[in-house]
Amino acid sequence: MKNILIAGVLGFGLAGCAENKxxxxxxxxxxxxxxxxxxxxxxxxxxxxxxxxNVKATVKQPHLNDIDNVFGNTIxxxxxxxxxxxxxxxxxxxMSMVINYEAQNSYGVYLAGVYQCKYLYxxxxxxxxxxxxxxxxxxxxxDGAKVDLMGIHIPLSEFKGSNxxxxxxxxxxxxxxDSSFSKKDEHTYAAIIEKREAKEREIExxxxxxxxxxxxxxxxxxxxxAAADAAAESAKSISE
Length: 240
What we know:
The chain is an alpha+beta fold. The chain has helices at residues 2-15, 26-42, 64-75, 83-88, 183-239, and strands at 51-60, 76-77, 80-81, 91-104, 110-123, 135-142, 145-147, 154-155, 170-175. The protein has one domain (18-201). Helices cover 44% and strands 25% of the residues. The strands form two sheets. Strands 1, 4, 5, 6, 7, 8 and 9 form a seven-stranded mixed sheet that branches. It is flat. The chain starts with a helix and ends with a helix.
């Protein structure tokens, strides 16, 4: 019986522990929180004064633009869905980490604030939780103001922390989307291809207009130069 119990505990540890509402491994959520807290602390006047009141982790369907910006080149190959993506039934989910906190300002007064981190991750085959390097930090928001990441998507290379318990500050978890592949994910493929084709058409149209505009501009400059020359000749003849 003792050996069975030990084996059961070891099996539990190896398999990890998925959070009930999101389906994510708890070390994924804990790493997302730790990363978010690091960025929050870096922007404070007094990082050591940080008091976290509560944290909420939410999983939902991401915006199409975010999927395209991070994974678009993987999804689309030669204007079609890549074989790897289709075979793996790759799908994309967003997790937001919202931290309600208090911290001292430059005068030592505690002020309340809200800091939000947005993550995008990829799931393949039967995965319900992403693998390292398949999850990216793509957005930061401080008290409603966007923090500029300069277009950089920051990969999470390792999931650290407990996989048995969530950080004590994480009070709420929720999800509005399932982790399994669905028709909505199939529609996402089509929408990204359509979006990219529309962008290509727009670029071609702009090139065409720009080319036409350059010709018109050249004609305007030529006419202006001719008019200037004519005016100069007229002024010369008058002075003579």
